[in-house]
Design goal:
Elements (H helix, E strand, L loop, with lengths): L3 H10 L10 H8 L1 H12 L3 E6 L4 E6 L4 H32 L10 E3 H9 L2 H11 L11 H14 L3 E2 L7 E4 L1 H15 L5 H11 L4
Antiparallel strand pairs: 1-2, 3-5, 4-5
Helix pairs in contact: 1-2, 1-3, 4-6, 4-9, 5-7, 6-7
Length: 211
């Protein structure tokens, strides 16, 4: 049976983000400095390092050093993130408007899909926004109904690690720390808007809290 350390390493190397919501046992494991040091030593063997974001609330594997191969991967990852920012931010705004709350979704926020869907279906402007958002390549919905569109959006967000569905029998989703990480990425891009995409990617890696 694979150990807790092995499970954590496996998730980090697969590109997953570990937080209290996405993987509580792994998050608590990494909160122990000795465990974190062991993981760091293992990652270093593969030119990786244990990185954090959101003031230590999210863990992920970043690169230890950059050569041509790592630069290409980093650029691709950063390009993918930036291309997904528009549909993600529009979705976040849609949820915020539909819930009537002033604060954005953060790690631990719960979304009741049925309630959200009812509000959107009863408000033509919100239904129009949903149709537009669901058609983005990130979600790739071909449905003409709000029901099909919203379910596809939530399915993709769960697959991408932005949401968790703790109980498969209930349509309640919980936001993970990866959403908070996206807020950090947006702030970082705003601060480095004069740099090229490649320069932003390298600056993000050197900063030690992104990618």
């Amino acid at each position: 049976m694979i150990s807790q350390k092995g499970l954590v390493l496996e998730r980090l190397l697969s590109g997953e983000f570990i937080c209290r919501v996405s993987y509580e046992d792994g998050f608590r494991f990494l909160q122990d400095s000795q465990n974190a040091a062991q993981i760091e030593a293992q990652l270093n063997l593969l030119n990786r390092t244990l990185s954090t974001a959101v003031e230590g609330e999210v863990y992920f594997a970043g690169y230890l050093a950059l050569a041509d191969k790592e630069r290409k991967v980093l650029e691709r990852q950063f390009k993918e993130i930036t291309s997904n920012l528009l549909p993600l931010t529009e979705w976040l705004l849609l949820v915020q408007e539909s819930s009537g709350k002033d604060i954005p979704l953060t790690q631990g926020s719960a979304i009741r899909l049925n309630e959200l869907q009812t509000t959107i279906e009863d408000t033509p402007a919100l239904a129009e926004q949903l149709a537009k958002i669901s058609a983005y390549p990130l979600f790739n919905s071909t449905s003409k109904t709000a029901d099909g569109q919203i379910k596809q959006v939530f399915k993709r967000l769960t697959e991408l690690g932005y949401l968790q569905k703790p109980n498969p029998e209930k349509l309640i989703y919980i936001a993970t720390g990866k959403l908070d990480y996206i807020y950090e990425v947006i702030r970082f891009i705003d601060e480095t808007e004069s740099l090229s995409l490649t320069e932003q990617a390298e600056a993000a890696m050197q900063q030690g809290s992104l990618l």
